[in-house]
Amino acid sequence: MATSQKQRQMSLLVFMAPVGYQTAAWRDPQSRVEDLYGLALPQAIARRVEAAKIHALFLADWLSFEETGKNPDQTGYEPFTTLGALAASTTKIGLIGTAATTFIQPYHLARYFSQLDWLSQGRIGWNIVTGTTGHENFNVELPPRHERYARAYEYMDVVTGLWDAWCDDAVKNDRHLGVWADRSRIAALNHAGEQYKVEGPLLVPRSPQGWPVLVQAGASDSGKDFAAKFAEVVFTATPTLPLAQTFYSDLKARTRASNREDASIRIHPGLMPIVGDDEADARRIHDELMDLVDDREGFARVSGMLLHVDLAGLDWNDRIPAQRLLSPEVAVKTRDANSRYDYYYDMAVNKGYSVRQLLREIMKSAGHSVVVGSAEQVADHMQQWFEEGAADGFAILPPTVPVGLDRFLDEVVPILQARGLFRTEYVDGTLRDNLGLARPTSRD
User: Which InterPro entries would you find in this protein's record (predicted)?
Assistant: First the structure.
């Protein structure tokens, strides 16, 4: 498939899945599950991904031990400390960490990310989430989704205001006059809103990127409106081309309505590539990986993803009665609503998936697109989505690590490069520079 858009290139993120993104990947004999939680494993992944010229490594976060928490995919590396360690272990790749606005004070968050941006020389991004679990560990009640987003708007005003408290020219470093910084170029924030009262300013100057790159993953209307106002990179679960195209055009339109240009926001659907020597070999790999899934452990996840639906009395091959499920219109108003509920509801009610089929869909990809085929077929899929208005790039979810990740980096990435769809070297500068995103201007 020849490229027709040589002037436009996709951006690629890799999801930090230290033993593989597929739920049972840790059981693969070649996984490094024994090395979890030390530095060597994420360090090796970051350096491996950096060598392939990937734009950024994406670290998710979990704040509660879920019902299926016995598997290592349900736990993870704490983002702030890990980002700091990886910043010292790499030189070019961007590093994106997740932090919830509901559970951390905005002053702390602004300070942490600003310092990380300095330590990494401008390679940090913040994946903004409002939180869907974790309230049981923070002595707070989790508000409904719409209220969490309403609070997040004020939160962003505080954080960005703190990042802009120092003008870019505030630091003088004038040894002769004994002036390190011009205090007239540093302003208190003096924010006093409904949720937060923050005087400021931060204790550090404006970081290399001005602000870390702002990343967001919400798929609800509230989430998309929030992304249209603030996000510069969006990570989304759109498993089919029509769904991805609809999401892409909708979010770009909302972005324009927020007086921002299309190019100011880059949309990255999640993609799990199962790469084989040919399609038959890839399907063998996929089937063997799925055979590692323990159905009993996944039963609770089916219930959880469908908002704790009652599965009592159902067999693996039974359909879930529609009357047991909340309609999408009702579900979106609940505290536990998740952005993929509509997708799984459609499978259960309209497509008639059995409990087992739902389990396998949830376990294999968590609602993301899965491509099973040769390296050429995976590249064709990515090119089609990129050129047909579905993606500006992709968030790669390696099914297994190291093998699944290596096959994507060693076999698919060179094809994309040969087609002119992906760069062959980093741009000198920050993560913003590499993504083609503007640096927020300093206040006057």
Answer: Diverse_substr_monoxygenases, Luciferase-like_dom, Luciferase-like_sf, NTA_MOA
What type of residue is 178? G
303 is in an annotated binding site: no
DSSP code of residue 82:
H
The better pLDDT of the pair 266, 352 is held by: 266
CB 14 within 8 A of CB 405: yes
Q: What share of the chain in percent tops pLDDT 70?
A: 92
Q: Which residue has the tokens 């040894």?
A: 175
Per-domain residue ranges of the chain: 11-279+369-435
- State the pLDDT confidence band at 335, using cuts at 50, 70 and 90: low
**Over 70: is that where the pLDDT of 75 sits?**
no
Q: Is 149 annotated as a binding residue?
A: yes
Phi, psi of 97, deg, nearest 5: -120, 150
The annotation status of 98 as a binding-site residue, yes or no, is yes
Whether the Cβ atoms of residue 419 and residue 189 lie closer than 8 Å to each other: no
3-state secondary structure (DSSP) of residue 179: strand
pLDDT tens, 153-177?
999 999 999 999 999 999 999 999 9
- DSSP class of residue 182 equals -
On whether the CB atoms of residues 2 and 415 are closer than 8 A, the answer is no
Q: Quick one: pLDDT at residue 395? A: 97
d(CA 427, CA 108): 31
Query: Which of 299, 298, 283, 348 has the alpha carbon at shortest distance from 320?
Result: 348
Average the pLDDT over 93-121 and give the result. Answer: 97
The length of the chain in residues reads: 444
Closest by CA position to 255, among listed 243, 246, 245, 264 = 264
State whether the Cα torsion 226-304-239-70 is positive or negative. Answer: positive
* This prediction's pTM: 0.88
DSSP string, 241-307: HHHHHHHHHHHHHHHHHTT--GGG-EEEEEEEEEEESSHHHHHHHHHHHHTT--HHHHHHHHHHHTT
Comparing 121-135, 241-255, 329-343, the range with the smallest average pLDDT is: 329-343
Q: What token pair was written down for 326?
A: 């909340």
220 is in an annotated binding site: yes
The answer regarding whether domain 11-279+369-435 maps to CATH 3.30.70.580 reads no
